[in-house]
Amino acid sequence: MTKSGLKRALSLLLSVIFVFCASFLPASAADSKEDLENKIAAAEAKKKQNEQKIKDLQNKIDSAKESNGYSSDQIDALQEQLDTYQSQITELNSQIGDKNAVINDYQKEIDSLQKSIDEASESIETQTKTVNDTYDLLKERLRAAYMAGENSTLEVLLTASDYESFLTRLELLSKTTKHDRQLMKSLQDDIAKLNDTKKLLSSNQQEVKAKQTAVESEKADIVSSKSQVQSLYNTVDSKQSTLEKQVAQRNAYISSLSAGSKELENENKKIQAEKDSYDKKLAEIAKNASQGSGELPKPGGNTGGNTGGNTGGNGGYTVSPKGMICPLQYSNVTISAGWYGYPNHKGIDFTTKGATGNTYGKEIRAAADGKVLSAEYHSSWGNNVFIDHGNGVCTRYAHCSVLKVSKGQTVKQGQVIALVGNTGNVSPAPTPANPHAGAHLHFEVWINGTRVNPAPYLP
Length: 459
Known about the structure:
Low-confidence stretches: 9-31, 285-290, 300-313
Shape: rod-shaped
Mean pLDDT: 78
Number of helices: 4
Largest sheet: 10 strands, antiparallel
Radius of gyration: 61 Å
Helix content: 55-70%
Order of helices and strands: HHHHEEEEEEEEEE
Strand content: 5-15%
Distance between the termini: 60 Å
């Protein structure tokens, strides 16, 4: 084979390889890129949601810690009151114990006096019986003497054998009478003394009882004071118990919130790790895919784009130097969140304000000519459209309420591709009472597979 023939063969082979690669590799890379982009978008949306949850949990923790109803200082103050009341109760119990000791001593004295009174009563009863018995005996003897008359006495005297016996009998009769009188008087004197003793003992007993009653009255006052203090103690103790339960509930609540926050943080770390992995894969795909200048193709390019100038442009829209128009063509458009307006927010959020500020349902227009790579629902992005504008430039339009285009469709700059909505992950989330809450357009610009700040690409 000649040298020129070899060159032609090599040229033909390279052409075949080029055509083969052009026919198969870009399509495969584009499909993988779209999958990864969706995964990254979902991961970022999940991270955003978790970060908001962590913020909400922290706010709840701070609110719980600052709540006046759960102050541990209040518990300490109540404990001081309890300690004071307990000290008073202890002192009153001591006083009650002292009074009980005095009352017991008085009772012992009363019991002793009662025993003496009982003994005196018993002695009086015995002596009275003796007096009565003696008195009855003397009465019987006197009655017998009376029945016998004076003759019996004379008979006793006259029957004496001699004068000496007479005198002896006379003296004996005289002594007997005198002894009887003395015996009766002695017994009566003993009874009188016993009655005086009993009366004195009873008087002493009444005095002791009076003292005992006075001490019991003092004890009753102390018991009443103790009851009042005990009631205060029980009230404070109940309040402290309630506060302690509240503190325990608060601490458990804070612990659960902290655990939830930690769990979300861990989940975010995993999401970030997965996102980094996706970004690396996306970067590899971007390297293998056809790269562009990052500028929109000039009019007449593969996409048929029309960049226009700084003003005028396609359909009278204001076009940026990089060839894009604002996707919302309304006079009251405003930016609610810019590039990194919150962590990892890689885009710009558009809303409308003022008299016609109901953003929901507003028309979304293609920022430039291009081809729709995807138009579908995603759990995080909601209804979203992804357009390839050529030269490595892509745009995304997320959270739409209605999609007006489909995958593979070619669109022109300014063409309505969707309507603004609040599908997917938006904040605030829509509710039955406010079904249009959170409506906005999330707009992204991608250059060679990497999201960039859209601001320099817009008018």
